[in-house]
Amino acid sequence: DRTMPLARPTGQIPDAAWTSGFREMTEPWKGAVGCLGVAVFFAMTIGIISWQALEQSPEEWVLRGRAGGFCYAWEEDAELRLSLEPSPDPDTECYGVCWTPLRPDVVLKDCFSMANVSWYGGASTRAQRWPLNGADSPAQPFVSGDFGKNPDGYGPLLERYFLGSTGVTVTVPPDIPLLLSLESDRHFCLATPAGRAAVRGAASRALVPAPAPSASCRHRVQTPRLFPPRRSPIWRYHGPEGSAAKIKRGLRSLARRLKRHRLQEGVLALGEHSTAVLAAADPTAPEQSRRHGSPHAWDPSATDALQLAITLSPYASIASPLFLRSLRDGDVASPWLSLRPRFGGCSVPLLTTWKGQLCARLNVTSEAALSWYLARVRHLRQALGAAYVAVEGAEGNAFLEQALPPPAELAGDRYTEVLAAALATLGNAIVISAGARSSHLPLFIQMSPRRSDWSHAGLKGVIPSVLHYSLLGYNFFIPDAVGGSLAGDAPGDPELYVRWLQIVTFLPVMAFSTPPWLCCDAWVLNLTRQCIRRHRDFVVPVLIKYSEEWLRSGYPIFRPAWWLSPTDPTAFTVEDEFLIGDEVLVAPITEKGQTWRDIYLPGEGHRWMDTNTARVFDGGTVLRNYSASLAEVPVFVK
């Protein structure tokens, strides 16, 4: 049986002996018995409601029932408490829903139907869908994760916020242990482990059709801070990294090639290993307590006009000098997450894996450890001349990964939340790999790596991910590199590279792992230059304009088709196009070999102009078999 509050009973009545007799009754008798049953049901319902209204406070009703044909089992198992909550909008009703188990073995579970309702928000998945109706996932902790460790788990960005196409939103407080399951096109379920405390949540319903989730009870939203998108692209370094000298030569070589191809603006991004090699060559590192200059420190002029980005993580290999130094100093536990002994004694570091190595993880609950880590980040950024710092490995709960109960201060995604807040103090040039209740912070969010293919784990999942991130408040993200960075079914496919490039042009940052001159013909290199210019001259000004609106209203910058067509069911499932604000519609090709597609133009009463042909079309219509050659991406302005 499923406990489903605020929903019609869906359980099956057992096929008892009297049902066979009922089937043999004549039609008039069946009708009479049916009418009598309906009358009794309504009489009981009205009686219960009248009793509640007269005997209980109208804003604090407790409903109790018993298992039967309606699949409700409350009295011996759980107590349901409903309360009317203050609403941020006069056109919205907000309710508090609290389930309390009455026995330690009770598993509390609420399921929300996907029949005729499209749902958005929640967790990111490896093969991202929009809406999430098409996703499948067994019940598992609602905690951010690394697809590299658990491809079937939830991804690095999630919020306890679910939005339905009917105007209903569901939120769950962060202190409630939560399991989420997704059953494609049937329902999604929220549950808690057996024996845990009460489940509390909020449900809101818009009384009038709303054009956006702004009318819902989004208690998590805080005042965002504004910072600009990147005007220049990111070029990831994949050259020699055996020594600091080899890395320097490799960076200079990449800078020269970019200049030769007239792509000399941007950021050269070093991975974590290359950063560690350069850091090891710097004898002024803070952990060695020295501050004098060094001939081995990184020279920023080595990259000419290009800026440098370095990559760090909150992990330290147990074989690294950093971890071994803490052993030598006799302070092995304090900088790292540790297991607390049950009967006294010394704490021992909680070891986990990161990029195939056994590692300890930074203890973000220790102010001393956080201060030390932030000082190290500041020093390396200055010593290496880096304009940007990327921090990987912010996602996940190291305790839950090993089936250990986490301490209260690190329950759920508290690790990600605390680390993000600390990194935000370093300025707005920080990139982090995960997000949870941190959309208000001035941080770039690095999207997960995607497969180099046409699937939803590859190209088809880019736009659903964009819409998912933006709906949850994370508008300043860095998409995966053009063409994908994980091995897939189409490595080195020029068509895939071009179609990917056309989407990334309209996102906050353009990122490249494989330069165009290595994968494709000369015309793709020329197209790359055009896309970079279009991003700088056309896209970035529009993003800045709607960034200011986001700052005022909390509206997402990247919007789905239903934003302008909130009552059109066709718009609810459009996952291969997106809006920038209310005035730019991007409808790229995401199918291999196609040079045409159907395009949904949202907003009845609006007019849309194709930027390629200057043709004008009415909103609220579908353009069938609309042409888009390999060198074109359909873009419309209102």
Automatic annotation (TrEMBL):
The chain crosses the membrane at residues 32-54. Keywords: Membrane, Transmembrane, Transmembrane helix. Residues 554-638 form the Glycosyl hydrolase family 31 C-terminal domain. This is SP15 protein. The lineage of its organism: Eukaryota, Metazoa, Chordata, Craniata, Vertebrata. Coiled coil: none annotated. The keyword Cell inner membrane does not apply.
